[in-house]
Design goal:
Order of helices and strands: EEEHEHEHEHEHEHEHHEHH
GO molecular function, one term: oxidoreductase activity, acting on the CH-OH group of donors, NAD or NADP as acceptor
Organism: Herbiconiux sp. A18JL235
Strand order of the largest sheet: 3-4-5-6-7-8-9-10
Largest sheet: 8 strands, parallel
Strand content: 15-25%
Low-confidence stretches: none
Shape: globular
Pfam families: Aldo_ket_red (PF00248)
Radius of gyration: 18 Å
Family: Belongs to the aldo/keto reductase family.
Protein name: Aldo/keto reductase
Distance between the termini: 43 Å
Length: about 280
């Protein structure tokens, strides 16, 4: 059993969250169970899932199979936007907790604001209830623009602990990260490698390959180090044991100012997913 490898970030509610964890999007239950167990046995301590991923059962099985004590594992799941609303969110949470086979989750997030449905404030009120009950230790959001977060705070007075968004060298989200930082919200990156596209030679891969050769690391490790060094939490997805090990092996080198400048030049503003205002 490998000791925890990722540093911890302190959330604005006092909880501590590993900066780098495992994502399991588009992974079936059996595959998720294997990946989660392997990751936890090899130094990971955070697993990120969602009701929409349909693999919460596998994630819970992986946590149990890993042998790592439950209190040492940070488990995040999310309510899908079609379940936004107060009562429907509480029902969805109960279903997620039952599927995971856990007594609580460490973080529960609103997966999308779905602004045209206009139910995300009621969803947030449900999350505050779950936090008060202790069944969700921390609460946050995913894919929220600053205007969506501001509305939650204005109407409830409760600041999210985490904002999980698409973020990678093409889309570094400078304004959103500055907004989150003002409120002590941790910005967490999904699709940290732009679904692998940023590694392609025509889209930054040649730059990353050069930096990888300089530091004795893979191009993916260069990008993940950029996230970590920028203070971003990050959840790379993999089900391959070698890649799972590789993705967390990013804490033994530092990118210098020239490296960071080369990475900054990759910014295009391009998304691999939809804009949050368009998800309804």
């Amino acid at each position: 059993m490998v000791d925890a490898l990722s540093p911890l970030l302190t959330l604005n509610d006092g909880a501590r969250m590993p900066q780098l964890g495992l994502g399991v999007y588009k992974t079936g239950d059996d595959e998720a169970a294997d990946a989660v167990a392997f990751a936890l046995q090899n130094g990971y301590r955070l697993v990120d899932t969602a009701s929409m991923y349909l693999n919460e059962r596998g994630v819970g099985e992986g946590v149990r199979r890993s042998g790592v004590p439950r209190q040492e594992v940070f488990v995040t799941t999310k309510v899908w936007h079609t379940d936004n609303g107060y009562d429907s969110t509480l029902r969805s949470f109960d279903e997620s907790l039952a599927a995971l086979g856990l007594d609580y989750v460490d973080a529960y997030l609103i997966h999308w604001p779905a602004p045209l449905r206009d139910r995300y404030v009621d969803t947030w009120r449900a999350l505050t209830t779950l936090k008060a009950e202790g069944r969700a230790r921390s609460i946050g959001v995913a894919n929220f623009h600053p205007k969506h977060v501001s509305r939650l705070i204005d109407e409830t007075g409760v600041v999210p602990a985490v904002n999980q968004v698409e973020l990678h060298p093409w889309l570094p989200q400078h304004a959103l990260r500055a907004f989150d930082a003002e409120l002590d919200i941790v910005t967490q990156a999904w699709s940290p490698l732009a679904r692998g596209h940023v590694l392609e030679p025509a889209h930054g891969g040649s730059v990353l390959a050069q930096l990888g050769e300089k530091h004795g690391k893979s191009p993916a490790q260069i990008v993940l180090r950029w996230h970590v060094q920028s203070g971003i939490a990050v959840i790379p997805k993999s089900v391959t044991s070698a890649r799972i090990r590789e993705n967390i092996d990013v804490f033994d080198f530092v990118l210098d100012s020239d490296d960071l400048g080369a990475l900054a030049a990759l910014e295009t503003g391009e998304r691999t997913g939809v804009d949050p205002d368009e998800r309804n």
